User: Which sequence fits this backbone?
């Protein structure tokens, strides 16, 4: 269902599919998997089988019912380009997006190969922001090259959870970069210099920088709650959004 979101860079979430499987190091402590188990315990039908992937066609029309222009994060509880989500279902999702130009849709995936293959023969709706997760060099950085070749109006990176120094990044064709540390039990710490290095490269290559959170560890390397850590990097919040966007 469509619900308001606590995610700092969006307004609402829309989940026409739920559930997923792990593909990389960034999936190790998946927040969506943990939440799905809670929702299963609460008896929600969509999570009857926990985090098993499930397409929910009954949810497709939800954005059509909302007239107010809204920023939607699509499939916060799944990965829209999961191999078990059919091309036909993806076509239906894109149809809804095209039919609701008053909204903007943020789509984030770790499955860059499927992303590239799907859009090889299709155009990207003009109100779609396409993004890939970039948690480390091995799994994340190769996704960037695939993303930059897709003619989306906005292309973005989510470096969350940021698990290591990403080194030198080519941000050609990338409009927006989100950085954040990992939250929850077992969270892996993020070093401040990793985030600073990405910020510096954004500034040098004209990409907008957004610092989302420290996660489970503070800038001083001590374990803290997300609330206690805040969202400041070097004494200020970095809430950059690409283009004339007001959230």
Assistant:
């Amino acid at each position: 269902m469509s619900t308001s979101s606590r995610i700092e860079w969006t307004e609402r979430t829309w989940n026409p599919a739920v559930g997923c499987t792990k593909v990389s190091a960034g999936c190790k402590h998946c927040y969506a998997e943990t939440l799905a188990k809670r929702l299963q315990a609460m008896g929600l039908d969509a999570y009857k089988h926990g985090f098993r992937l499930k397409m929910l066609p009954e949810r497709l029309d939800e954005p059509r019912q909302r007239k107010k222009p809204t920023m939607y994060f699509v499939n916060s509880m799944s990965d829209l380009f999961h191999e078990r989500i059919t091309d036909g279902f993806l076509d239906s999702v894109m149809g809804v997006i095209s039919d609701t130009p008053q909204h903007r849709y943020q789509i984030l995936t770790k499955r860059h190969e499927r992303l590239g293959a799907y859009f090889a023969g299709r155009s990207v709706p003009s109100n779609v922001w396409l993004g890939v997760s970039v948690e480390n060099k091995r799994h994340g950085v190769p996704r960037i090259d695939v993303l930059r070749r897709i003619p989306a109006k906005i292309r973005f990176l989510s470096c969350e959870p940021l698990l290591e120094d990403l080194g030198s990044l080519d941000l050609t064709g990338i409009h927006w970069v989100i950085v954040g540390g990992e939250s929850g039990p077992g969270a892996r710490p993020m070093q401040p210099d990793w985030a600073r290095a990405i910020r510096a490269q954004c500034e040098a290559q004209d990409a907008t920088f957004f610092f989302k959170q420290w996660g489970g560890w503070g800038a001083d390397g001590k374990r803290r709650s997300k609330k206690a850590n805040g969202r400041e990097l070097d004494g200020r919040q970095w809430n950059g959004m690409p283009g004339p966007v007001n959230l």
